[in-house]
Write a structure and sequence with these properties.
With 190 residues, the protein is mainly β. It is 13% helix and 55% strand. The protein contains 1 helix and 8 strands. The protein is elongated, with a radius of gyration of 35 Å.
């Protein structure tokens, strides 16, 4: 019985050493190392062309109080060259004011700078004119100027916020009215 145990132990030792020798002689298998995936840069947003949108906001008589709320439909056209943008927009909307509610028509021009590698952020300045219906003549026209920022979301939408000051051409300067507005634009060409 002792003899059988010695033979078994010898057999196991022999097999283990043979296994090591076989493993040492086996060809080396090299697994290829793949580079880590690199996130693709977000494509540049195409600001050029037509857009449609909506915006809402509030206007305040400077030094006084909230005068009303507004809801406007907007349409415009922008020309983008490299990092510069120039555009024209028109809008029509309804004002819910303390002095009664009425329709408002207007037009703005804007110039801005596209920021970042993907050019998805627009910082701009604007100037424009507007009036309330019924149109009573050039003395009732109001002017405004200010600025804002617009951020591209996805492929065809952008959100923006802008602040402008202005007054009636008949009231002169300094401006007596402050507009704070936020909006959403759809750029169908994207």
């Amino acid at each position: 019985m002792k003899q059988a145990g010695k033979i078994s132990a010898g057999f196991v030792a022999c097999m283990m050493s043979a296994g090591v020798a076989v493993a040492a002689d086996a060809p080396q298998i090299v697994m290829p190392v793949m580079p880590a995936p690199v996130a693709a840069a977000e494509p540049a947003f195409d600001w050029g062309g037509f857009y449609l949108g909506a915006r809402g906001g509030a206007w305040i008589d400077i030094g006084e109080e909230l005068r009303g709320l507004e809801l406007l439909g907007v349409g415009g056209y922008d020309i983008a060259r490299d990092r510069a943008l120039f555009g024209l927009s028109a809008y029509v909307g309804y004002n819910f004011g303390q002095d009664g509610s009425n329709w408002r028509l207007g037009a703005d021009v804007r110039a801005g700078l596209l920021v970042g590698e993907s050019r998805r952020l627009l910082i701009y300045t604007l100037a424009g004119i507007y009036d309330y219906l019924p149109l009573d003549g050039p003395d009732d026209l109001d002017w405004r100027f200010g600025g804002g920022a617009e951020l591209a979301l996805g492929r065809a939408l952008s959100i923006y916020g802008q602040v402008t000051v202005g007054d009636s051409f008949g009231d002169g300067f300094p401006p007596g009215r402050l507009h704070i507005e936020v909006g959403l634009n759809w750029h169908p060409g994207n």
